[in-house]
Amino acid sequence: MRTQVAIIGAGPSGLLLGQLLFKAGVDNIVIERQSAAYVLGRIRAGVLEQVTTDLLDECGVGARMHRHGLLHDGIELLFKGERHRIDMRALTGGKSVMVYGQTEVTHDLMEARRAEGLATVYEAGDSVRLQGFDSAQPKVCYVRDGQAHEIECDFIAGCDGYHGVSRASIPAAALKTYEKVYPFGWLGLLADVPPVSHELVYANTERGFALCSMRSPTRSRYYVQVPADEKVESWTDEAFWDELRSRLDPQARERLVTGPSLEKSIAPLRSFVAEPMRFGRLFLAGDAAHIVPPTGAKGLNLAASDVKYLSSALVEHYRDHSSAGSDHYSDRCLRRIWKAERFSWWFTSLMHKFPEAGDFGQKLQEAELDYLVGSKAAATTLAENYVGLPL
Ligand code: APR
Ligand code: PHB
């Protein structure tokens, strides 16, 4: 088999890249470790910046999102038992975010790929190997149903997430990694109950962080901060609802509707960046190159901007015979990534309980939050980062 670009991973990065390349006439094959159903079963974040929605529109997969997504003009910050609204639209000259689950984005991209009849290999397991990407003839090898396959290509796009094979294939000495691991995780619960508020509520409380999010007017996604070593099995639905309730203001507590969980899981919090994002003819994009803690929901949006830069670079190569885009790919991505890393770290630091920070730390967080909701300058800084910095 031969293709122009072999894409490793059918998460949002890989599928979006495949679609953008296809639209520009660049041939590609996606190779995924898991089945499509497994990929769609993962519950991830759900806030899209306008840069991301524009990109989905550009590759023709935005229709369902515009029908079912929820446009949000603000968020609420809850601290010292009271909620305060940040009017993002007013502070950013008219920008908002789209609440639409990553699972739905993935579904729409898979559906578009299927409708166009584009080649996707699912269930390749751990057999995928990347070869020759430091030469002009890269190759991707994999085993499917006991049979060995080989794809010759011009470029490989490593879109296979944090635990993927792509970053691991680059010689360690050629990469510098930066990492911060937080001493807590998010216990998340998805349920078919109406959201407690029509906007997202980010809560700083003495018991720890909580987030009230949603997928639709009838489906809620809630999170509470838990210690990093917590086990999901030790949380009944009832215990979750009790803990969430204890972190809300009286009005929200009253409004909270509970119900059986559709999904419950714990996600660790981590900041991670690998530099550079290109090695020869292998490009990394999305979670394969960087992780942000979920406070602020930047993960999927960063994946989308990487992929935008990468598709432009590859199209430039084929259309204009220019390597300028490829040569600048890593630097262009990293400028935006580090700003999102900074924002996600700051918002995480502001909203979570840090065991070692004590009462003094709690008081400083509350003072900063009070400043944030009382100062237009401070609120604007939050708002412009939350809706997404320009590409
Ligand atoms: N071979 C082939 N595919 C692989 C391999 C491998 N060795 N390892 C991992 N994969 C697949 C995973 O099964 C997954 O479907 O690569 C895909 C990577 O998808 P994601 O982890 O979702 O990463 P990405 O597409 O970069 O999405 C960006 O946004 O909201 C955030 O972190 C969240 O996943 C999200 C991310
Ligand atoms: C979610 O809905 O899952 C979500 C929303 C906002 C975040 C993180 C996660 O900051």
Overview of the molecule:
The structure is a single chain. The model has no long low-confidence stretch (mean pLDDT 97). The protein has helices spanning 12-23, 36-41, 50-58, 63-68, 88-91, 102-115, 165-169, 237-246, 250-255, 299-320, 324-351, 358-374, 376-386; strands spanning 5-8, 28-31, 47-48, 70-72, 74-79, 82-87, 97-99, 120-121, 129-131, 139-144, 147-152, 155-158, 176-191, 200-204, 210-216, 219-227, 261-275, 278-279, 282-284, 290-291. The protein folds into 2 domains: 5-72 and 97-179 and 270-348, FAD/NAD(P)-binding domain (3-Layer(bba) Sandwich), CATH 3.50.50.60; 183-268 and 354-387, 2-Layer Sandwich (D-Amino Acid Oxidase, Chain A, domain 2). The chain starts with a strand and ends in a 5-residue tail after the last helix. Strands 6-5-14-15-16-13-17-20 form an 8-stranded mixed beta sheet, sandwiched between helices. Helix 1 (12-23) packs parallel to helix 6 (102-115), helix 1 (12-23) runs parallel beside helix 10 and helix 10 (299-320) runs antiparallel to helix 11 (324-351). Strand 10 and strand 11 form a beta hairpin. With 391 residues, the chain is α+β, with helices and mostly antiparallel strands. It is built from 13 helices and 20 strands. Residues 45-47, 200, 211, 213, 221, 294-297 line the site of P-hydroxybenzoic acid.
